[in-house]
Amino acid sequence: MTVDKELWAVRTPASARPITFDSDRCIGCNRCANICQVDVFIPNPEKGKPPVLMWPGECYYCGSCVMVCPRQGAITLNHPLMNRAKFVPSRRPEDDPVC
Amino acid sequence: MNNVYAWPYANEFGQRETVRSDVLVLGGGLAGCFAAIAAARKGRSVALVEKGATERSGSAGSGFDHWESACSNPCSRVTPKEIAEAYIEEQDEYSNGIAHYIECREGYDRLLDLEDFGGKIRDTEGLFRGAEFRDEKTGLLFAYDYTNRFTLRVWGTTFKPALYRELKRLGVRVFDRVEATCLATAGSGGEKRCTGAIGMNTRTGKLMVFEAAATVLAMSRPARIWLFNPDLVGLCEFRPTQSIGSGHAMGWRAGVEFTMMEKSVRGEFSAAGRSFPPYGTGNNHNTWYAATMVDARGVEIPYVDRDGRELKTVSERYRPAPGQKFFLKGGVIDEAKYPYRGPETLDYDELMRRGYKLPFYADLSRMPEMERRAIWGLMVGEEGKTRIPILENYTRRGFDPEKHMLQSYGTGWQSASFLGQERQLFGAPGGIMHDWDLKTNLDGLYAAGDQLFASDCCGFACATGYYAGRKAADSVGGAEREKVDPALIDREEARLYAPMLVRDGMNWRELNMAISKAMQNYCGEFKCDELLNEGLDLLNSYERDSVPLLCCDNPHELMRTHEVLDILEVARLILNACLLRKTSSAPLNFRRTDSDLTDPPQDRAFLTIRQENGKAVGGRKPLRYFGDIETEYIKRNEAYIAERDARYGSR
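^ Those are the sequences you sent over. The predicted structure of the assembly is below.
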């Protein structure tokens, strides 16, 4: 049983951008695409360019793609805006005149 | 921007490849890797099938931070039997005594294996020299109970690449990017046996047939049954996107027996909505135990022991109460029973009564340096999804654990408040029923890790994986490898490829959304026969009317589509399991509105379920069906014990 049709994929946008590339630093080695267990990337049709993040909504935010990257800063993981937990300078009760 | 791309991989739809091995392992996470290593060490030919890339795949692919119940490590002051029995008691006997004992008994052996393979399990550089959680002789680091020293802090980011190298070294044939979809069986009734599996390459569509004398199922627990977000699919659940319970689904189709599938808990993690990145908020559980917590004013929240005695020092948070031998903490321990309850921050309601102000924060700056660095840098850094997403990302955003405090959301480690109908298979959920060989009811089929009922942590996965692998390998001796039935291959090929032949049909996300909504409506916090039957009826109508409409354009989408078909299968398994339990059960988080009884003696049992000729068939096994865990283990593992003792010295 064969599937006699041309195979193609449409990049499926999501509300978040989990992974961004710095195309000046990326060497297009595709190690990130090959390590991703969710398989959210495809190799760029243009050799040497960063992979294409085809399915950003499927990203599991594990960071394995960043860990395997041989070029520091070529690939970056960012949480959706709503998931950026808040932090503030540590405070002691004596810092606060109300207490 | 051009959003349409020609498919970059070959079109191999219609091609078939047959792989023959003594032992077949389905799933390349921790359990699967160790199953393959055990079988290969026994000289068997092994094939391992993994949907992702084995080097980093599985729930712990990107790391894990602590290894529970390593009771045989040289510093431990507890025995494997003590801790395994404690878990059985703690879980009201709805516990996997066999697997827990294996974890307690053999877990440390697997850590030593990991060290041999190049993984890091001890502080060789002396980074924590002098810390009270460090053993100065061995360099081992401990978490939680510093007196009894049976949970280890480890460098889990190093483990999967090390395991992958070892698989290659041993000559295991690893099939990455292959989705196992169907267990092959022969015979019928009580004579049914597993002859291998069928699957599909997720990049090319090639059909893969695996023939083996013994098979180990080592895939994930189900997910996305109740929780689904079509936009941020990868954040719907705690475990990886593609870990959705395909092993359960294909096991159900093949007639494998399950238990505890009626158990589900109120959601704890879904960063697609109510919660935040795991381990990425201020809290004091699990990875973050025992962080100093403060309220909005910076007033410190007291820790108390099991008797309500307020603890004065950080050190005391890691010690049993006066008169207590040991305490339990970890992945599946929430509010432990009195005998096993460890130090904890004061109860939330009591804090409110005393005037503490929300929001709360974790403030590591107030902790001794060693404890701060153990939580932020070691635990947060080695735990899955923390090295880059938390440690690196938060540092880039300016977080400094010596200067900042990190906010908490909600009142617990789940860092969110879920609704009752938003459920997950968490906290030792249901899975495959098995015997002392981790063998299922089908001859030739074994199970390990998350595939087993009442599974929990990484040590559990590694220990049961290795055990199942060696038992599977031992069984091969006289077993003949059979051919997979060609008619089954044809049927599975037609089922797999069908969505590729539909045009202008339904996307897999629409079906997943409908299943999740149906499960929230018909299998939520409160159950009764009428609701459950309505739910089954609706899901059956999806199978009949909507599944034939599913369509996709490439092998990746076809993989996602079949994942949702597996979710549909598991949802029906869960509904059927719920129908079998007629009274409420507190340990199983199972509440019926059509029964006044909770845990009556006649229902305190493992209810089992399997499918035969399209019908659910119920059964039961007594709690503690596994007998005395130590005696039964020793009886069946004399060769392993001798081999182990020769290698590492006797205990």
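The first helix of chain B runs from residue 30 to 41. Residues 93 and 623 of chain B are 6 Å apart (CA to CA).

Shout if you want it in another format.
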